[in-house]
C-alpha cells in the first residue's frame, strides 16, 4: 500500500442526538428581599404578568422555593446568574421526570 493510500475502514456511527434534558431554575426564600422586589424582578426579567409573578413570589415566601423557569441547562444557568445579579438566591437543577 502506498503511503498516501488509506485503508478501507468501515465505520458505524450513530448520529442521533441525545434528547435535551429539561433543567429548572429554583429561586429560594431569603430574609433580605422584599416580596414586592421579588415580584418586580420576575416581571422585569422573565416578563411574567403581575398575577404570575405574585404567584411565584408567594410560593417562594410560603414554600421556601419556586421553579421560575424550565429549559436547556445553559439557558437556565444564565437565568440563575441573572437572579444572583438581582440579589436573589437561585440554583439550577435537573427537572424531575
Automatic annotation (TrEMBL):
GO molecular function: peptidase activity
Gene3D superfamilies xref list: 3.30.1390.10
Residue span(s) of domain Adaptor protein ClpS core: 21-91
Keywords noted in UniProt: Hydrolase, Protease
Pfam families linked: ClpS (PF02617)
One GO term of the biological process aspect: proteolysis
InterPro entries associated with the record: ClpS (IPR022935), ClpS_core (IPR003769), Ribosomal_bL12_C/ClpS-like (IPR014719)
Signal sequence range: none
Record carries keyword Protease: yes
Summary of subunit composition and partner proteins: Binds to the N-terminal domain of the chaperone ClpA.
Protein family according to the UniProt entry: Belongs to the ClpS family.
Function: Involved in the modulation of the specificity of the ClpAP-mediated ATP-dependent protein degradation.
The protein's name in its UniProt record: ATP-dependent Clp protease adapter protein ClpS
Gene (UniProt): clpS
Amino acid at each position: 500500500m502506498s503511503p498516501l493510500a488509506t485503508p478501507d475502514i468501515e465505520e458505524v456511527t450513530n448520529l442521533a442526538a441525545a434528547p435535551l434534558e429539561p433543567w429548572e431554575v429554583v429561586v429560594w426564600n431569603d430574609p433580605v428581599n422584599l416580596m414586592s422586589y421579588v415580584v418586580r424582578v420576575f416581571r422585569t426579567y422573565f416578563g411574567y404578568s403581575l398575577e404570575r409573578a405574585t404567584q411565584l413570589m408567594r410560593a417562594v415566601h410560603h414554600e421556601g422555593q419556586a421553579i421560575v423557569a424550565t429549559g436547556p441547562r445553559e439557558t437556565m444557568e444564565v437565568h440563575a446568574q441573572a437572579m444572583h445579579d438581582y440579589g436573589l438566591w437561585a440554583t439550577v437543577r435537573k427537572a424531575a421526570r
